[in-house]
Amino acid sequence: MRMPAAACRVRRATALALICAAAPLRPCAAQTEAADALWAQEKFPEARAEYEKVLRQDPSNVRANYRVGILLSWDGQLDSALVMLRRARAGDRADADLELMEARVLAWAGRTTESVAHYDSILARDPARRDAFIGKATVLGWAGRYDEADAAYRGWLAHDPLDAEALAGRARLRAWKGDLAGARTLYADALERLPGNAAALAGLAQLDRWEGRERQALAHVDSALRADPNDRDALQMRREIRAALRPQVNLQLGWGEDSDDNQAYWQTLTASDRLGDAFTLTGAVGLFQASDPLDDGDRTSGELGLAWNHGNVGLNAGAGVRTLSGTAGADRSVATLRGTVSWRAAPTLGLGLGVARTPFDETARLIGSGLDVTTAEGNVDLKARPDLDLGLGLGAAWLSDGNTRRSVAVAASWSFARYFFAGPAYRYVRYDEGGNGYFAPRPYQLLDLRLGGARRWGAWGARLAGGFGSQRIGDGDAQDAWHAEVRVTRSFRVLDELALWANVTNAASASTTGAFRYTSAGLSARIGL
């Protein structure tokens, strides 16, 4: 279980700022005095402009290269930052602080092996250097190399058994591995050695959040802030917990169209509120409008749901009603039911099972068909390595016209170079009989290679993904299959988010009619009340 991205960014920025503030350098030359004065006043854009003037006169100036490199890294320009830091090191190979900063920026860039090599180089010269031990452990933890990171923390604890950051770091590694019980034990041990330690209390708060105990998490984070009122991680966590405890509203607007001229627009409004630590109550209303060259159809829906989460077990159930009307058949109202159960059987293994009963109403013709469908699905997810996730899904569906569907999905996803992922996926779907108004292959198979990347820039985020492979319908010839999708998000305050998304594919299974191409796009908004 990895640390949430927001908390990870805060921790990295804090660590970098501390290194920057602490790192001693040679006395500055006279021409850097104006830049240094602006730096001391934290007027960083103005300081950068002055340091760049210095570099135009003296490209080898150590301090100017170093500090411009730091400012570039803060702006996310990591490659440019590394160029400046290496110029600084070329002017002073003996300064371990310069190498320490290069090691950290390499870690930010996802170049873990190079980063660790620099930390090892520093430790070879100074075996009792704390910031190199802690930096190495932190970088290895970010990369998912948990055992090596733990060894680095233990290496420093051999020098200082009461180091609060190292004690909390070992517990944090256990949590990232998914061993929440082990992490809780280590945090408790840290608090026994260092009563009231803010890092350990904040760590316990994060464990409480992951286990769904938000109010207990808030109590722990408040204790952490009483111990250290300026702890940035704890302050951010308190804002996030308070936002999570507030009621939320989600609005989704979507559009879809396939090459058979089936078109649909949908709008869904969902509200949720916490009932104590374990329960969440949700209510949803929606409108779905569909059309094809011959028919039109509308669906209105409403549902109440209740979710319960405790430790590694979660239950979710909902009941509602859909009202269907259209030109292809008689109007009717149908009750809907759904339920899911999830279980984290081990830190790296999750299991899930879900059942549902709904109308089969994804196109204008199907809205008027009078068909209902009962589905059952199971899934298994396994983290085989910190950078490798495996998934298996099995499904079955029973239609009210007597037809039956069975499906299998298998996928692997490899994360690499910090922002990217790739892996193969296979899907098999088979109906017992041909469908009347819906795509019912006997069978359908899809094999493709998926790849993509995701990144955040402050309040903005983007995800781009796609894939290419082969599909086969029944006994027909193999055909090319491809898909592409993009999602852009903008965050506001702590919880609020606006997202735009779009995707296009020629996979026959994406459309209820098995059309040659299916395109969809939408807008979603999440607001904390």
Write up what this structure looks like.
- The protein has 529 residues and is α+β, with helices and mostly antiparallel strands.
- Helix content is 36%, strand content 40%.
- The protein contains 15 helices and 16 strands.
- It has a 16-stranded antiparallel β-barrel.
- A hairpin with a 2-residue loop joins strand 8 and strand 9.
- Helix 10 runs antiparallel to helix 11 and helix 12 runs antiparallel to helix 13.
- The two termini are 29 Å apart.
- 28% of the residues are buried.
- The N terminus is likely disordered.
Given helix and strand content, the structural type is alpha+beta
Poorly predicted parts: 1-28
In percent terms, what proportion of residues is strand? 35-45%
Side-by-side strand order of the widest sheet: 1-2-3-4-5-6-7-8-9-10-11-12-13-14-15-16
Task: For the record, give the distance between the C-alpha atoms at the N and C termini, rounded to a whole number.
Answer: 29 Å
For the secondary structure, the number of strands is: 16
Counting DSSP H or I runs of 4 or more residues, the number of helices is 15
User: Helix content range of the residues, please?
Assistant: 25-40%
The major sheet is characterized as: 16 strands, antiparallel, barrel
Write down the overall geometry.
elongated
